[in-house]
Amino acid sequence: MLRPLLIALALAAPVAFPALAQTTFGGMRADVSAPVEVAADNLTVNQTDGSALFKGNVVIGQGEMRLSADEVSVQYATGNQQRISALTATGNVTLVSGPDAAEAQQAVYDVEAGTVLLTGDVLLSQGQNVLSGDRMTVDLATGAAQVQGRVRSVLQPGGN
After folding, report:
1. What is the C-alpha separation between 45 and 30, in angstroms, rounded?
2. 104 with 114: CB under 8 angstroms?
3. What is the pLDDT of residues 109-134, one digit of tens each?
4. Coil vs helix vs strand at 155
5. Element spanning 11, H or E
6. Can you give the pTM of this predicted structure?
7. CATH number assigned to the domain covering 3-154
């Protein structure tokens, strides 16, 4: 994958931000009212606590947004197991929206709030521009993103 190259570019970046950077994520805003679709190799459902665990090649889609990971646990809304309230993805997490892509160790998608929190070696690529940090929060309704924790960036001249 391109991750080692992008990390090397980010670490060699001439621009370093002490703690916080703001950017936009995705060429268009995600439709947070669209249905959430989940595909995976395996599904385990716990009837006692109402949780579900998808494992193996998990791909989650909502409108134009795609999130993939090794496994994803599903938390349903209190009192309504027909409505997903949050998804927690772990292992090889990739979030793609429009022309932008982000990688991380973990992602928590709060479906009700319309936000995604990526943590652990976050790497965002927007065209040839690269941004890295410890955590990134994306507001899917607005496309606004905040990156925190030793933020580094490589900005290409004439890039987007």
Report:
1. 28
2. no
3. 898 888 889 999 999 888 888 889 99
4. coil
5. helix 3-11
6. 0.75
7. 2.60.450.10
